[in-house]
Amino acid sequence: MSSSADAPTHWAASDDPRHWNYWRREADAYADDEHRAGLEGTGLYMPRATIEDHGDEISLHLELIDGTSGTEFEIEQHANFATALGRWQAQRRRERPWTSRGFLRAYSASKPSPFELIDDDASWKQPLIEQHWPGGLRDGWRRLLANRERLLSIAEQLPRRSCHLDAWASNVIARPDGTLALLDWSFCGDGALGEDIGNHVPDGVFDLFWPASKLDELDSVCFDAYCRGLREAGWTGDDRVVRLGMTASAVKYTWLLPFQLAAASATTHLAYHEPADPDVLYAARGAGLAHLVAWCDEALALAEALNY
Predict the structure, then answer these.
(1) Cα–Cα distance for residue pair 35/297, rounded to 1 Å
(2) Listing from the earlier edge strand, what are the strands of the sheet with 180-182?
(3) pTM higher than the cut 0.90
(4) CATH T-level topology, domain 9-306
């Protein structure tokens, strides 16, 4: 990793330790004993690391982790991961010199996307869109965009926790001893209670690691398991607050639908850098996007009921 790594503008690294994409953060996380200690007893495991610091460049060597990748998890393993996240996030927030702040707002706003295509009829008449995206998604996404600031404000008022902020199937490995190795701490920092699990659920569907037909099951199981982990570790709050954090995190993805509209005419399609069948990909992402609209509506109703 380097402070001057060649990357698109929206992925540019920062020298600011509070920026969502601070270039040294992952190395700092692995080197921080207090941060590592916070995972003890939760079921999460942070790999050991050897760090070579050359000033404006860092070499990071992680231990080899044996086990089952989260991309191959069955529902029970997803539940175990959610429970472990809950145990960790029942604890008070540990702010370290390198932890990020304001991730949800800054990350979601950083993504360039052709939002004007939402109002472009021709974009919605593309075969992949007409064949695979559910009715009502266009109006639902307009509603999500119209409530972007409201959802961000809700998320920012919720109980704060130390969060991974990139928790999803590709960053977790179930080890033979039952613990779950959590990788890629590049974004780690301040987040809302429930925000991490709100990332884990839709991302698995968007990148074809979990069937879209079972998205409701993944949502329900992971939410219940996360709350169970919180309570096992001593949290005594209202589950509706957790659900609010989970569902309000839909705002992270406001850029994704117009991005998919723009990509629908491409000759090749990728899911997490791997070639994908466009029909399968657009059906899955259409279902996932519709799920996020439902989350938006749920979050707004919960926020009103809870006076957020």
Answers:
(1) 35
(2) 44-45, 180-182, 172-174, 68-69
(3) yes
(4) Aminoglycoside 3'-phosphotransferase; Chain: A, domain 2 (3.90.1200)
